[in-house]
Amino acid sequence: MKFYIQSDSDIPASNQLFNQIRLAIASRQFPPGHRLPSTRQLAMQTGLHRNTIGKVYRQLEEDGLVEAQAGSGIYVRALGHEGGASSGAPLLRDSPELEKIVKSSLDELLKQGCSLNKAREMFLGEIDWRLRCSARLLVTAPMQDIGAGQLMAQELEESLNMPVQLVPMEELAETLDKAVSGTVVTSRYFIGDAQAIAAPKSVRVIPIDIYDYAREMELVQSLPKDTCLGLVCLSSGILRAGEVIVHSLRGDEILVISTQLGNSYKLNAMVRSARHIICDQASFEAVKEAIHGAREDIIRAPQVMCFENYINQDSIALLKRELGLD
User: How far apart are CA 79 and CA 185, in angstroms?
Assistant: First the structure.
């Protein structure tokens, strides 16, 4: 992934870089275990001072997204139950490879001094615990960006065909105190806070990867100078990150108007000014209705690009396996 910095922007260069790297991690362009470029490499690519890049890396580490390994570099953290998320192959009970994994796992337990009865209890205990966790699925996001949680909950209910409870991050501890078991799901943007709350309660947290917005960024790069671009989304956080990234890509060459779903006044003004509108699935109908309502006032209707998924499909497949739905 290439990073773009507008040096003459009002948005601090560190903020521009932070948002772009965070998107790369959250969308799995930088997967768990990926080594981030060195400060020297990024300095050569972006023109930023290495101290500025170091500040961005420290912020990413404080947010729990990366970890520094002495003498090696900065790596994307592997979080929660996410092993094998990139694999789409179904697991077959009679697979020789699976039998080999089971046997090697059992052999390793026996080498560690575990008896067969104890190993059986451990396997059954883990399976029972995961089954109990699968009975309740909670999605969490901070109250200030609860729209991101709504997007996740809507897509998971549709994809998994099971009830999903949306819990603001500020209420997660109280909710988990009342729950016997469950699985907490959230975006990598919020994973550090969710793990800090859930870990003491022995509740598993599964991070999900989000859509990478590559198609939308290609559109932004191709827009003529002085174009007006509209951004509409349920999530205030996505809008803020979108504004920063668009500005990082194009600077002041294009005008960006953004609004959350529900602000009809700003949306109606947007459809009269923007040549292109990028929106999420939850906002698509509202955008179409606003364009239809303004059809007598506009010469040419804006072109609408709707990103249908907020959650990466590999993460959906991982959740199905972890919840026993696959």
Answer: 12
What pTM was estimated for this model as a whole? 0.71
Shared domain for 218 and 300, answered yes or no, is yes
204 and 268 both lie in a single domain: no
We report the CATH number of the domain holding residue 70 as 1.10.10.10
pLDDT tens across 16-51, in order?
Answer: 999 999 999 999 899 888 999 999 999 999 999 999
Going by C-beta distance under 8 Å and a sequence separation of 6 or more, which residues neighbour residue 111? none
Answer positive or negative: Cα dihedral of 156, 170, 184, 23: positive
Secondary structure (DSSP) of 244-269: HHHHHHHGGGSEEEEEETT-HHHHHH
Q: Among 210, 88, 94, which Cα is nearest to 145's?
A: 210
276: left (phi over 0), alpha (psi -120 to 50) or beta: beta
Identify whether the C-beta of residue 77 lies closer than 8 Å to the C-beta of residue 69: no
Sign of the C-alpha dihedral computed for residues 132, 133, 134 and 135 taken in this order: positive
